[in-house]
Amino acid sequence: RSQVVGVVAASAWQVPTSSKLCSICNMKALQFATTLSLTATTASAFVPSSSSCSKRKQHSAVSSTSASASTRGIQHDLTFTPPDTLGEGQITEQLCADAAEKMKRVMVPVSKDVSETGYAGISYIHWPAERKTATLPLLLVPGFDSSALELRRLGPQLAKLGVETYVVDLLGWGFTQLDGIKSFSADSKVEALKGFWQVVGGNGEVVVGGCSLGGASVITLAAENLYKADGEEENGFVRGTILIDAQGFIDGIGPMSFLPSPVARLGIKFLQSEGLRNQASQMSYFNPEAYATDDAMKISRLHCVRDGWEDGMLSFMQSGGFKPKERVAQISVPSLILWGRQDGILEKEFASKFVETMEDAELQWVEECGHVPHLEQPEAVARYIMDFLSSDKLRPNEDEKANSPANILDGILNFLN
């Protein structure tokens, strides 16, 4: 059994070969594709619109004709069209359509090693808090090769409880810019994620969370940007972390990073198959009869039609993937570990290992739940997160309350009225 989302150790090549697909491709490439797909936790994550992902040059969005400014000088990509989930996607879930309508893409600063323009388009969904609470904003990252739509069930629940929630796609996945990007490596993904919070959050204090492989990116981001209560000069903005069935103790992607490009591309193409996506969905849930639906399969695979998706995946593979293992112990801020009691993808021992390794971590099991608690038990997960954010150790500083995006907007509206 594979042990981690999107990350394959050498033993992962011992995938059973009884699948009907085995007879139509090179065995090694199939085993790679099967492993990668079976460990994908985003079986019901997102639906792209092929028209919105067509051949337009996304990197031109940094020009004045394709960007708009907000209270923080945010430049939104006006060429971006959210995915049409109900129409083109033929997805019946209304929460998916509601989330897609909220999706935007913002231009964030990155190095010239990532993009010649110095900017990259990052897609995200913002669920504004529906009531005022004394909690920090929350930035969430979906899992392997997923999109912000993966959090479509959790986002509204958090908003109802009063949590300002931003769900952000990792560069190269979801609905982020693909054209004009030079690198989709793990480092590039974290760099763009940091750029997102610089632009949208003004580097204000925030709690960051990640699902599955998204947790590896969050661990890296947090370790490099930790908030220090003693007011050190090099103070960061991450006040806490939330890890949802996260990958934190396996580095890299094993032999996949050494595959010749033609073989790797063959494996990547198998990620588009309905059979493999359906198997991933079956493995992700405690109750697959209820959740591993035809909708789930459609949502999980249609993003692959985006021009440039295959190149982006190849770039990530050849970069070697995330390396969070040594970073986990560096996380000194309060952390919440959420883990599905019946997770069939990651071993339960990893949940306890986070608590043993991190300085200030607590573990909350999610009952009757597989690898994707945010999809299978969103109401319970939202309550656990709210309790964590409401704790005294995560109480916002007074100056942070005044400078939060929500309060800045409130101040402008009050002034206009």
Order of helices and strands: HEEHEEEHEHEHEHHHHHEHEHHHH
What is the straight-line distance between the termini? Answer: 60 Å
Specify the number of helices: 15
Q: How big a fraction of the residues is strand? A: 5-15%
The profile of the biggest β sheet is: 8 strands, mixed
Radius of gyration: 20 Å
In which range does the helix fraction lie? Answer: 25-40%
Instruction: Choose one word for the global shape.
Output: globular
Widest sheet: strand ordering: 3-4-6-5-7-8-9-10
Would you tell me the structural class of the helices and strands?
alpha/beta
Count of DSSP strands: 10
* Mean pLDDT figure: 81
- Extract low-pLDDT stretches: 1-71, 408-417
Structure description:
By secondary structure, this protein is of the alpha/beta class. It is 34% helix and 12% strand. It is built from 15 helices and ten strands. The chain has an eight-stranded mixed β-sheet with strand order 3-4-6-5-7-8-9-10, with helices on both faces. A hairpin with a 7-residue loop joins β1 and β2. α1 crosses α6, α4 packs across α5 and α7 packs across α9. The longest helix has 15 residues. The chain is globular, with a radius of gyration of 20 Å.
Brief sketch in words of this structure:
This protein has 417 residues and is α/β, with parallel strands linked by helices. Helix content is 34%, strand content 12%.
